[in-house]
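agent: user wants the structure for Probable molybdenum cofactor guanylyltransferase from Faecalicatena acetigenes. delegating to structure tool.
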Amino acid sequence: MKKQPFLFAISGVKNSGKTTLITKLIPLFKKYGLCTATIKHDGHEFEADVPGTDTYRHLQAGAYGTAVFSGSKYMIIKQQEAVSEEMLAFCFPEADIILLEGFKYSSYPKIELVRRENSEKTICREYQLMAVAADFQIKQDSDKAIPVLDLNDTEGIAEFILDYWFIKTKLSMTILAGGLSSRMGVDKADLKYKGKTFLQIQIEKGKQLGIEEILVSGYRGKECTECIVRDRYPQKGPLGGLDAAFRKSKREYSLIITVDVPLVTVEVLRTLITDFRKSRMLGDGQPIRVVKHGERLEPLLGIYEVSLADLIEMEIEGGKGRVFRVLEKAGYDVSESPVPEEIFENINDPESYEKLK
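agent: tool returned. relaying tokens verbatim.
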């Protein structure tokens, strides 16, 4: 299957600092081992070669295209109508990230740069505007708040883009919704909190994060908009759900959450994703990272490498079917969360549900 290019725009009006930022981002991406290409649109005709060179003379003589190459690089100049960034992106099949300079009115995900005394108001459409990078304080309506980054914090901007890249290209979400709900007496996935089912709440968190592949394990109800995955090993608890979901997933990693922790916030999940992504890209991270709060470890609130499906199957068939044994065999890292303990409470009996309401 041909690799789909990942395009991300650095947008803004003239003299907002787009080129400067891109030249600072590229070495930071390279530090993580990523291959970066760039594409810039020129609204005017531009000189495609240096006057006086052999290839320039070829073009002047009427050649519709010319190429020059050495042992390590090449350059092609071709006269063609209706060229698009999509066409050009496929010229860089090895690129992990393709940065677009400009494209402020495009539908690509983007960061818009605004600079004091140059462009203090945003002009990009809100659709696919992932963040604004500014060198001054921006006032926003709370109900339409877009992340605001420090234009002078290049590393912070790079980490923001890398998290988005990781989520879009590497990460799925698995919602474990197949528990028996024996203490609750009804399916916990269909319980409601603030007008939404527990399952809807967890799905919305995934969508807020930008995760495109959301898998729901073991759900038996009827109110589900995402892909429902049935266990290959019924009655084997959460490991049965993880085994089936990981084999279904088309991504390299999966964010795991159970359906009965509706209060876990997007911010907790975003921190977990950042921690996991950075450790893996730096080469020192384990294939599993889970959340810890206080003295409690949450093995079903974490990120797992989906290639662990075979190890999970071995534990189901030959072991005791315990999630902690998988953690011990695979190796895991921990993200410690400072948020209040009640955020992580499992709502799995009538008393805890009544308290939640």
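agent: one observation worth passing along. The chain has ten helices and 17 strands.
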